[in-house]
Amino acid sequence: MDAATHGRENFVIGVDYGTLSGRAVVVRVSDGRELGSAAFDYPHAVITGALPADTAGGDTVRLPGEWALQVPNDYRDVLRYAVPAAIADAGIDASAVVGIATDFTACTMVPVKTDGTPLNEVPSFANRPHAYVKLWRHHAAQPQADRINDLARERGEAWLPRYGGLISSEWEFAKGLQLLEEDPQTYAAMDQWVEAADWIVWQLSGTYVRNACTAGYKGIYQDGQYPSEDFLAALNPEFKDFVSTKLDHTIGRLGDAAGYLTAEAAEWTGLPEGIAVAVGNVDAHVTAPAARAVEPGQLVAIMGTSTCHVMNGTELREVPGMCGVVDGGIVDGLWGYEAGQSGVGDIFGWFTKNCVPPAYHEAAASAGLGIHEYLTGLAAEQRIGEHGLIALDWHSGNRSVLVDHELSGIVVGQSLATRPEDVYRALLEATAFGTRTIVDAFRDSGVPVKEFIVAGGLLKNELLMQIYADITGLQLSTIGSTQGPALGSAIHAAVAAGCYPDIRAAAAAMGSEPGAVYAPIPENVAAYEELFVEYRTLHDYFGRGANEVMHRLKSIQRNAARTLAAAGVRA
Q: Is the dihedral of CA 167, 172, 176, 179 positive or negative?
């Protein structure tokens, strides 16, 4: 089908499911112009302390540390509210929409019944934490991840090097094994263990198709197969048939149509019944075509609450600590590489919420600024190294290159003269040092980084962008769109609807023009090189086994949580 059919313009909808909200964007097929958008905040946000009373039947059920859950109906509400609002904002006739596509945070898992009903919506399971969505940043499955890694190394499993030698606690198998071992009744009642990226497509189309992206990067699906039953049984005999009974399903190619919009979903969204619904995808991976970064060596960093780094390569290489390398994981015909940082914007948000005195908030309000803008302005006045601090960006664990969510944040060099803006700048720099570590790992493994492109909400912070350019030594360009993932999903929707033959062609026509460009400043590069040496010293000391204090503290914390749980989880 051509970009325009029967003499009128066609449009597609991209829906980006983030950590705290969902965003819908209406995009013109012919040129990628974004005509309207709307967002919907999840009413239950991220659940970390206790299950919400309105979904748990009135019970108060406390959660242990490192848990992060969500309520799946919040995702449906994005379709009910954000999509119609985006269409109204665009001022288009909904009948001209030819396709819809979604992207999701990953690895975010939903335990469901055969018809796709989430287990937490089954009354007898409403007060069980394991019946809820496990968000990507649920890190309580680290003990299970450790066992998976240890056994895979011991057995020499061929798939382990594809993930840099380590499987994350964030991923499908670790979270599934935790569910089995901590709540076997819920595990037995679960018919499918579904990525949220695929569950929402199921809700839209009535068809369950596993997307090739999450299956490859989060589900240990390589060369057409999952880990063997023999391997799974060695982890736990009851886990032997996990793949065949809970996980295995048709794998859908990125850009294909998973199905077509059902009557019920058409009523939710206000869209025509029967339009194409694209195979699901991950927020970071769909952003690459939105940034027109589908060629080898173009590293795209999607910077928000966390950061995901994706890049295509022509050859298969083993990169330590990557989140995976998948054939066709971003576009057909190339190896798609992924790395990431578990905490970035989350760290800055935590600091401003918990560590900044009221006087600073008052001063920011008086100046008509948000607290982040205010602290950034103060930090920008400093010379590099003036604060005397080095921080490790592990407040939410380390995704790459250490793949260890038992690690934690640290700031070295504080004194009685240290001010909030000092620590804030040190945290900005720490996340840039973390990205530099990833860039170096790619290069050292024979996967050269030729371009550095940033998308996501944090690209608006000019100081942060310059720090990243200076620390990586790479020219940094930002994506022109403020809705990179949603635009990327819209591009996939256009391909699924038959408007373009493939993702590359759609990206060329619909991708965003570049935004601001930041060149590394030579004297800043030299100054940061000295500080990066100190960062790497701390990185290796705490992260590579020289000092296990962070792991011991997590163990103490976990034991304290078990003691609390043993005393009774219901208040």
A: positive
